[in-house]
Amino acid sequence: MGRRKVVHVLEDDTGAVIVQTAPGKVVTHRGGSITLPCRYHHEPENTDPARIRIKWTKVTDALQFEDVFVALGREQRVFGSYKGRVFLEQAGPGDASVIIQNVTLEDYGRFECEVTNDMEDDTGFVNLDLEGVVFPYYPREGRYKLNYHQGEDACKQQDAILASHSQLHKAWLEGLDWCNAGWLEDGSVQYPISHPRDQCGRKDTPAGVRNYGYRHKEDERYDAFCFTSKLNGKVYFLKRFKKVNYAEAVKACIREGSAVAKVGQLYAAWKFQLLDRCEAGWLEDGSIRYPIVNPRSRCGGSQPGVRHLGFPDKKFRLYGVFCFQKNKDETAGGTVMTKSPTDSLTKQKSSSSMATNATRGN
């Protein structure tokens, strides 16, 4: 911690450029800033810096590449959604590291650093991970109603993205137990079982993440596993003397200068704000849920988690409402990092045990 570790991707004594990147991964959260470390040198070291091209790309699971940043001498260009957010760190000669500000959920994944000197080049890879929470999702229409693209859209509508296998596996290690299979971002269908039972993962088999493999993205239908991270605002339960129906809930949040919270926002508030409320409330998708950090008697069971009471008739006046209010200062990108990424990682108070049975009530 506090020291940047580097690994030689390729060593060559013929005059080739040699790129060094951080092994493993760097970690931040949505809205944060992070350095993707990459350094280079030449053998022999007599190359004109103005002839060095630095290029960063995002690698997708389909092994396709999305341009992020390119620099040639003093000329620089940033692409797509990274405009205004990606800059060279410029920590000295041979530094090809970039800083990403105001990190988004979509930034999660694998980045390639390529350094080119005339006819020679070398590449290294950096994995960007996000602190966050995985949650299963299905719509009002019921379970196993989403093809891959609908699952992807459903997560986005709830302020999340489809989870990766590594994110789901981490959630399982922290205790996530869910009996319905769901899409992941790579097109596979999986589900985590911490406590195998007869009708859920088979009682005589070990706990683990069950994998149906890669399924047909258009024709087959499952639930979805979504991933979200830290909020650029806060979720709160709106205190009212009377219960409200869905339409009244929407108007009540708007009067507060807020909006009805999305499912992903409630999970993020439970994880990062430690939001704990023993009263059920409407969410944007018409579901009724409530977050429990400290389980107690007559409050949703013995484990922490976000309880789900289903999708009642929107005319029912039986519940409160959870509202979401954005931060007034939208520049929540945090301090730009000029040292090793490990120097500035945010530590959260919530323990890994909080993920246990995070979605009890299914």
UniProtKB/TrEMBL annotation:
Keywords: Disulfide bond, Extracellular matrix, Glycoprotein, Hyaluronic acid, Immunoglobulin domain, Repeat, Secreted, Signal
Disulfide bonds: 179-200, 278-299
Gene3D superfamilies membership: Immunoglobulins, Mannose-Binding Protein A, subunit A
Subcellular location: Secreted, Extracellular space, Extracellular matrix
Disulfide bond keyword on record: yes
Biased segments, Polar residues type: 337-362
Every Ig-like domain range: 16-129
UniProt KW Repeat keyword: yes
GO molecular function: hyaluronic acid binding
Residues of the Link domain: 133-228, 233-325
Chain segments carrying region Disordered: 334-362
Family per similarity comment: Belongs to the HAPLN family.
Biological role stated in the UniProt entry: Essential for the proper localization of brevican (BCAN), mainly as a perineuronal nets (PNNs)-type deposition in the brainstem and cerebellum thereby playing a key role in the formation and structural organization of PNNs. Contributes to the formation and transmission of inhibitory GABAergic synapses between Purkinje cells and deep cerebellar nuclei neurons.
The name this protein goes by in its record: Hyaluronan and proteoglycan link protein 4
The species this protein was found in: Champsocephalus esox (pike icefish)
Lineage: Eukaryota, Metazoa, Chordata, Craniata, Vertebrata
